[in-house]
Amino acid sequence: MQPLQGLTVVTLEHAIAAPFATRQLADLGARVIKIERPGSGDFARGYDERVRGLSSHFVWTNRSKESLTLDVKHPQAARILERLVLEKADVVVQNLAPGAAARLGLGYDRLAPLKPSLIVCDISGYGDDPQRTGTYRDKKAYDLLIQSESGFVSVTGTPDEPVKAGPSIADIAAGMYAYSNILAALLQRGQTGRGRRIDISMLEALVEWTSYPLYYAFEGAAPPPRTGASHATIYPYGLFPAGDGTHVMLGLQNEREWVSFCDKVLQRPELAQDPRFTANFRRVAQRDALRAIIVEAFMPLTGAQVVERLEAAQIASAQVNTMDDVWRHPQLKARGRWTEVGSPAGPLPALLPPGSWDDGPRMDPIPALGEHTDLILRELGYAPGAIAALREAKAV
């Protein structure tokens, strides 16, 4: 039996943050009913067509879900949605604009008296708790905007230019905290029988992920410098060229490794006692001089020879893989981490979620828009004629 089997999640979601949270609930066996706009659906469906005509964003975050199309502003559709929540849902998740769910009658304050066991998770850019609004509550919030607002962009990139993270980390952070808070609320409900409201802010999630740079700049101190693909406060820890044009990512964590690096990798044991480099903070301060020494030592070597020396010295290293390399990564293959999921475009490869359990994660198909509408309406007692009438009225 999967951990969340028997639980039903109703979600009004789009883009990444909420869909990523609910996909993880689906991975654990929850039934996730995704409410989508008739005709267009989750706007992430239209971000690109990179996966055999499907959106890469949508493929990643929407397996194992059921798609129900409802025009939630249509009176008949609104009644269907309310019935679905009150009769079926254990959890409601939404990342609509702040206040939109409440205007649709789906706010926790309205639903809790009707169904005290219900868990409602609201995801927004800056927080949607009516008791703690702040002046940013109604600002539009997209991933890159939150990366900027949180300070993340200011400490990421090169000295010449700040950059964003490649993945949508603000959305992912919010989705992870929504997921973990929902699991905690389910455990609490098991003890008390009562649900609760969860208010997830993308800004708060990513400020938490900003981690040590925030404390590094404590009480007005200078923040960590932007150092590209090198670590800002540990050195040597970053990307170095070899003589054959390849690059090697390597990292040292302590003085024992520094001595070994000088002896077995650079083959200059005396360098370990150079007063410029005898502690990490000194190496950071002298990173340009030390980098020049390392680059000079690596120039006669191929990337493979550099890695061979690093492994002999027990210094951590990694390849700078492309996305194509990751699809073919030998460690993922050796651990059996790839499977397939169905989709409107046919079977697609999918990475099993981290962690494992005896029954394995649920890996059901990615839904076509409205694929499960008739099924769910029949569960609610609608006859074929009534469903046809709803379609005629453009409610579904």
Outline:
It comes from Ramlibacter rhizophilus. The chain is of the alpha/beta class.
Task: Characterise this structure.
The protein is built from 17 helices and eleven strands. With 396 residues, the chain is an alpha/beta fold. The protein folds into two domains: 263 residues, 3-Layer(aba) Sandwich (Rossmann fold); 83 residues, formyl-coa transferase, domain 3 (2-Layer Sandwich), CATH 3.30.1540. The chain has a six-stranded parallel sheet, with helices on both faces. A three-stranded antiparallel sheet has the order 7-8-9, with helices on one face. Strands 10-11 form a two-stranded antiparallel ribbon.
Q: Multimeric state of these chains?
A: single chain
**Unreliable stretches, pLDDT < 50, 5 or more residues?**
none
CATH topology of the largest domain, anyone? Rossmann fold
Give the overall pLDDT as a whole number.
96
CATH superfamily of the largest domain: Crotonobetainyl-coa:carnitine coa-transferase, domain 1
Please give the radius of gyration in angstroms: 26 Å
CATH hierarchy, class of the largest domain: Alpha Beta
Name the beta content range. Answer: 5-15%
Helix content: 25-40%
Distance between the termini: 33 Å
CATH architecture of the largest domain: 3-Layer(aba) Sandwich
**Total number of β-strand segments?**
11
Number of structurally distinct domains: 2
Main sheet attributes: strand count, strand direction, barrel closure: 6 strands, parallel
SSE-based structural type: alpha/beta
Written as H for each helix and E for each strand, in order along the chain, the element string is EHEHEHEHHEHHEHHEEHHHHEHHEEHH
Distinct helical segment count:
17
**Dominant shape:** elongated
Organism: Ramlibacter rhizophilus
Pfam families: CoA_transf_3 (PF02515)
Protein name: CoA transferase
Keywords: Transferase
